[in-house]
Amino acid sequence: MIATPKRQLIALAVSLLLTMALVTPSTAQPPRPIPNLDALRLDEPVTIDQAPIKLSPSLVNVTGRHAVVIRLSENPTARIPQGAAQVAQLNRISQQQERVLARLRAIDPTLTELARLRVALNAVIVEVDGAALPALARDIEVVRINPVVDYERADQPPMETVPYIGATPEVQAAGYRGKDVRVAVLDSGIDYTHAAFGGPGTLEAYQAAYGTNPSDSRNKTLDGLFPTDRVKGGYDFVGEVWPNGPLMPDPDPIDCGVSGLSSGTCAGGHGTHVADIIGGQQGVAPEVDLFAVKVCSAVSSSCSGVAILQGLDWVADPNGDGITDDHMHIVNMSLGASYGQNYDDDSAIAVDNLQPLGILVVASAGNSSDRPYITGTPAGARTALSVAQTAVPSDSSYPITVLSTTVYGVAQPWAPIPSTAVSGILVYGASLGNALGCTAYPPGSLTGRILLVDRGTCAISIKGSNGAAAGAVAVIVANNVAGAVPPTFSFGGGSPTVPVLSITQTAGNALKARVNNSATVDFANPVSNAGSVVGTSSRGPTMGQMTYGNQIMYGQIIKPEIGAPGASISAVAGSGTGVEPFGGTSGAAPMVAGAAALLYNASNWSLSPWELKARLINTAETNIYNGPPVFVGPTLAPITRIGGGEVRINRAIAAQAGAWELSNGAATISFGLVEVTRNPTTLRRTIVVRNYGDTSLTYTITPTFRFANDAASGAITPGTSVTTITVPPRSRRTFTLTLRIDPTKLPAWVLNSGLNGGNGAALTAVEYDGYLVLDAPGTTNDLTMPWHVLPRAAGNVSAPASVRATTSSPAMARLTNTGANPVSVDPFTLIGSNNTVNASLGAGMQMPPMDLRYVGVRAFDGTGVCPANSPIIQFAVTTHQRITHSNYPVEIDLLFDTNRDGTPDYVGYTAEVGSFASDGRNAFFVGPVGGPYSAFFFTSHATNSTNTVVTLCGSQIGVTALGQQINVDAYTYDNYFTGFELSKIEGMSTVLGAPRFDIDIGSGVVPANGSLTTTVYRFNAPSDVTDSGILLQYSFAPAGREASAIIVR
């Protein structure tokens, strides 16, 4: 499962979600277009001094003990060529770390050293007194001090899934079984005594290695039982008590399995499942050398940030001699955090630093569903291979019929799935006063019946268990949120001895209307879900912008890049020989890691990490649906859900060629977000085709669209510099792919951070994607590359920097658009500005820059809309840097001093509706300082924009009527890594509905290659208001030109 990053958010309390009608502006204002607010209706600052600029804001003014990563100035050895140069660099790093630690201990004698990193990062990890941090940050050799960020694990038989992806007996019989490929599993450890890894497979063997409970000393020592022939090495960087106690590293990375304990309990087993899928006896690559790198807790689902960084360092230099010739070849990371910050996260940067050494990191994309930009880190790292989850071959949907209505359900694999139909009277749990099924039903109350309950509050396995205990023959769980595909769930306890199915909210409503009638679940006639993306699999593209402070793309890139079935039956830690279903992208990533090991083996260990990635992506199965066709119809999965397709290792091994982009080695062609201001606009990418074989290959090159309606629109015309290309043996050739964009044919931009913030369909509506197909004679050497672009019709508007107006003589202001598309103008009274722009501190610094630029305001009569007919108030916020999605990593806060006594009375802030990564929509929450907070309106933000508009009712901040003067302070906060302030504009004051300056913008649209003349008005206002002019926000424009401030003199 995917973790909530460490952040400090004000507690959410969504008490009111309204639907809004159009409103009328105050008669005191000049005529202007009334904003359409329909889509917005919802169904103390820390001072940082200059000295510790290298100190993460979350560590400023802190007290108590803190675990921190202190990065130092010498390059890590991963950036140094192998050999003597690495040894020399290791010496420099060791000397630097000794020097710095000595100085740090002089500052804080209580400092405790936790770890030293030398390969992936040059850093020391220490626990330190927070009061000493500013002094530590001033050290000349310290580059950055970040808090430790923790993650979480990303939560049929192998003989079903393994052949399905092409790891057939024929492939393995050819000698491709992963021999001599070193694969590290960064997870909860591996039960190396399990029969799946050649162990004895007995309880006695497990307890000899682990002991009888987590506190047993045997799980901290090797005892001559580890390493083994199959699990060749590793290390435990966590111990058995964290996070309930300190990290206690030891040399024994054995996984904790509850079935092997005589006393106590644990939450391990995850790593054993993963390792079995990769390289167990029935795994994808059964002869790989496995290495257990324990970075995740034995007693919770958390994974230690300290341990992950140590683990990434370990995989580059396992014997710690400073020379990386013993590095791992492949690393599996079935863990991460949603809405991944791939440029700012230091674990992602560490992953990128491993690739030049020859290490491919395979990671889970995440289990946060079909929501824009929600894919996680570290899978989002540029060099990682990000894996989506697809359905296993036996995964099926089952018809549920009541009267003449048939809906379909998804059976959960941890409960029985019979082969014949099950019938009974359909009963809704609410009729027994227990709609959720989280508590026991009266004994016998459901005998012979089919129970329908709602999702929520407890695990659905508990619901199934309670239904079975009362006599139900099947339990059906209706989703509590809208969605086309029923979700799947991991086992959460209980003893569900009857089938448990999940259905959509719509299907649940249909069944609720037909309760107390005979129902049949037809297990005898399942509909296969194979060849489809699982509903919970996370969607891209990645967060950030392609030009975000670096030359190599981090944002808006295609992730996930490949898919694999993720519900294999795999080994259970501590059970000796036991197996059980294991799913999610946690189970999909090891399928691909195993496939990469086979391909590396088949290439005689000659392929680089990016070539391994490319050849797996190039040969994947592209005909994958966006969910089971019984639910979504024959709808293909967008590229941002499946990347290159579903892995087919047999094709990758057979093909003697590969293709990737010249500039970055990626087999995915990411054009990113493009503001199209010219007609036409042409984009280009240079593609490399490499022939590894001994005979020439000739390819016919065809760019294709994923969806027919995109091709029919005529908005995008793909082309190539040549239509055929011949690549000689052992050679490479290049050609150019072009996309010609006609902005007049692009669809309206419906993707936003508010109402559609969690709506995958909104992203599908505005993105264009497809495959670049390279077709060779026959099929063996055919290659495909996914391409993706987010084109947005934009203008390029300029406005005068200032105008002169008096109360008796308005000013004229001409807005000029040099772009090929009309631009809508949204006007506000400018009340605050900030010209300070903070540059990014660099990759992996965990401090994304987000500086306020302008703040504007407008207010309207809220009669019939807001409580007590209070005014509708909108604040416009323009930042210097673009925000990809309003949810993360930036939160916009407004503090309101409505009685103007110098102390804020109310606060408003942007936040995701619901808990982290649970909903995707962003709203503006408002309430008294200290809460509770309510959201009446969604945040207005078009995604990938510097412009945000937040809406509230006056009643939320104690304003009963227009004409009231209030004071306002604005802030941006990092709500992903630290929770601390990034920028501010303070001391603003304005009279709501009676501004000093206003504007008549006529039609509100600046025509393409044309102009619009507007009228700027001055009105009498109190002397202490900060109204200084007009803020104009433009619908779509190039970065940096999305707003204008007209100062009125």
UniProtKB/TrEMBL annotation:
Domain of life the protein comes from: Bacteria
Annotated Peptidase S8/S53 domain residues: 178-625
Biological processes per GO annotation: proteolysis
Signal peptide stretch: 1-28
Record key words, sorted: Cell wall, Hydrolase, Protease, Secreted, Serine protease, Signal
Span of domain PA: 422-511
GO MF terms, alphabetically ordered: serine-type endopeptidase activity
Active site residues of this protein: D187, H270, S586
Pfam hit, one: Peptidase_S8
Family: Belongs to the peptidase S8 family.
Protein name (database record): Peptidase S8 and S53 subtilisin kexin sedolisin
Organism listed in the record: Chloroflexus aggregans (strain MD-66 / DSM 9485)
